[in-house]
Amino acid sequence: MKKEVHIFFTALMFYTRIPCPKNIDHNPDYLNKASRYFPLIGWIVGAMAFGVYAAASWLWNAEIGIVLSMIASILITGAFHEDGFADVCDGFGGGWTKTKILTIMKDSAIGAYGAIGLVLLFLLKFMSLVTLVKSESLFTNYHAFFTFLLVFITGHALSRFAAISIVFTHEYSREDASSKSKPIAQSFSSKEVIGAAFFGLLPLVVMSFYQIAFLLVLVPIFLTRFFLARYFQKWIDGYTGDCLGATQQVCEVIFYLSISALWKFI
To answer: Looking at the domain assignment, is residue 153 inside a domain?
Structure first.
């Protein structure tokens, strides 16, 4: 149990800016095992982002609440996944060979593709959440508070599961140890697969108790993850940490859009 707690805090330290006990470090072995808790980190980030939304929407309105919740999630994670998304936009937008793409993604500067991609990503995330919160039939009853909390948690957890699952099915692209995500790609066991699947899918299962049709969001999430992984494989023969971050961000938005679209037909 003590070891599992250490592994969890390793995940919390690596994927967020939340303070952890002083004895937690970036131990490569623990960091590799920490992938099982990646979706669980989504529970924490989603719950905290929802807390900001709930408080801000009470003080002002839903739109301001959503913007502040997005800012909160970025601050909590240190823009870890958004940075990966921007790097992927720059790398695959400006590079035409594996070497060039990887070189661009390694550059700390953000380019036009990354900046435009982030603007459109944030706009789409904001509008999809606004559409959800304004769905009167979904959020005007006494289940509204709990349902939207589940939307936040499930969006963050499921998208992280989609991202980390690429580690289980594809090879790491970089041949050197130049990426801070390299230890995650070294090896994995059934514990990592089962743990990630459990924490990634459980919130959606709970949501399905409210409306079974919500399980259908697995289809667009799976397709998005499948095509992104295939695209990365085609161009760079695998994935990098930036690719995982981009997958998380895209799948999170796809989740919100899917829930909003599904509710029109339920």
So the answer is: yes
User: Within a domain: residue 13?
Assistant: no
Distance CA 161, CA 128 (A): 21
H/E segment holding residue 189 = none
What are 33-88's pLDDT values in tens digits? 899 999 999 999 999 999 999 999 999 999 999 999 999 999 999 999 999 999 99
SS (H, E, C) 45-81: HHHHHHHHHHHHHHHCCHHHHHHHHHHHHHHHHCCHH
DSSP class of residue 212 equals: G
Half-sphere exposure of 27 (CA within 13 A, CB side): 13
The angle at the Cα of 87, spanning 83 to 92, to the nearest 5 degrees, equals 150
Q: Are 43 and 199 in contact (CB under 8 A)?
A: yes
- Counts of helices then strands in the chain (DSSP H, E): 12, 0
Query: Within a domain: residue 5?
Result: no
Q: Is 37 helix (H, G, I), strand (E, B) or coil?
A: helix
What is the structure's pLDDT at 138?
53
Flag whether 145 is in a domain: yes
Cα separation, 158 vs 163, whole angstroms:
9
Structure tokens, 165: 């699952």
Q: Name every residue whose Cβ is closer than 8 Å to that of residue 265 and which is 6 or more positions away in sequence.
A: none
Burial group, residue 136, by CB count within 10 angstroms (0-12, 13-18, 19+): exposed
Quick one: angle between helices 80-94 and 241-263, nearest 10? 100
Which domain, by its residues, includes 190? 40-263
Q: Report whether 67 contacts 126 (CB < 8 A).
A: yes
Can you tell me which residue has the tokens 């295939």?
230
Cβ-count burial of 142 within 10 angstroms (0-12 exposed, 13-18 middle, 19+ buried)? exposed
